[in-house]
Task: structure prediction
Amino acid sequence: MGSPGILGLLLLYLNVLISHSSAAQQQPLHSVIDAAPKRVAVIGAGAGGSFAAYELRKLADASNIPVNVTVFERASYIGGRSTTVNAFDDPAYPIELGASIFVEINENLMNASQALGLDIRGADHFRPKETEESIGIWDGSNFVFTMKNDSSWWNIGRLIWRYGLAPIRTQNLMKTVVGKFLKLYQEPLFPFRSLSEAAAEVDLLDVTASPGDAFLEANSISELFAREIIQASTRVNYGQNLPLIHGLESMVCMATDGAVSIPGGNWRIFDGVLQAAKADVRLNTSVTEIVKTNDGAVQISSKPTSDLDSTSPDESEFDEVIIAGPLQYSGISISPPLQHIPDDIPYVKLHVTLFASPHRISPEFFGLRDKNAHAPETILTTLPEGHNLGSNPKGVGPADFWSISTLRTISRFVEQEDGEQQREDHYVYKIFSPERPTAKFIAQVFGIEYSHGTSGSVTIAPDNTTIGDLPKGEISWFHEKVWHPYPLLYPRVTFEDTLLAPSIWYTSGIESFISTMETSALMGRNVAALMVRSWQREKDERNDSLTGKIEL
Result:
């Protein structure tokens, strides 16, 4: 007596299925199939990891695929290499330690900032603008070029007078190259599984295969403009000279129109998108091991960063893992071993020195003898004519530093000798250099003299002292950081793929192509889109299989 009832129910269900054939009306079936959320681990809360989580949430929700995202970050903060420190330990004065700006064409960062309601301001909105020249390019003995504050026509005129048509040719070349790159944002190329194949598709491998100086020469950009202007940009952005860095990154350095930043720190973009992704963010947590289990899951072992040696690991299972940072610096053990391990890429060692002082940059140090002269507020550097260091990564040359920037002024109450408090304006500076600046160097650049050693003598600091040895009245606050913020961008034509092994994804292959916050965000989105497409295919196959069984 039971069989006819079952057959009747099946026929009734089939009629309902046929009469409600649209995808939206079949939603209850999908909900049953996809009841178990996809579990995704993202290792790294920088640009790549945060935008991977952000895109996963948006695409999975749009496809009605439940997803749980867990983000592991070994640091105590979100943002990776985009982070701030507080001048004078005062949260009212956050200072960018890493990635300071992004530009108008960075659509991932711009769109997210606008969607999150973040304030977007000109990148130099805090700069004092107290001197006539905003930027000077120093070759170790002379300023080869300076740019004035708020005088675009004067600057353009001087550029054309000194460099002829090279600035215009460079602008046109940059737009062509960047236009090719932007095709990677669009279908049918996006999302791309192979960056090498995508770069070939948009005709950029010839650009990445060539050193910057050779690429510029082949495109009729004069050596003078390349060395003095473009190389100054590659040095401040990447600590590399044109014969070392490839042509694509050389052009990216010149795409500076509409430079902006987020007050409070650009890290706020990445914090905001992680909140929008509804991710479970675990700060101060280091992933130590990734194990692919027999049932196809991925087991993650993690420990508190502060107690890696003695703490027992916490173990969690996931369906997919995204490694959103250079694998070579991660300290993660992976088993079974990867069939292809990403290349170890040499990264630049950069010293960042932030400090505050009542002193301006010394015009005398830079050879400006006029008693009324002021040094430019931002000083970039290049190599002098005839001083060719080739592709040597130790390429700072006679300037000894990459850049010095005046960031802002901060008004502080300072105790005087009589015990009274007096308000003083202190300038906040940032120095990029390949080595730790000595107290002697800083004292000379800022015209500081002080008693040292013999009582009553006034001398410049000896070579073995550091900024912390200078008097508090001369250097009122400082913070030093050494890190590896970007790779040596040697010419190359192959780049790491996005999938290192089944269910193990990778975002940092793009860093040898272009190393910016925006491109890391792009690769995070790219990996997320590939992942959700694979889930959608699985979902469609299950639905087709179920439909086929019903038809039988």
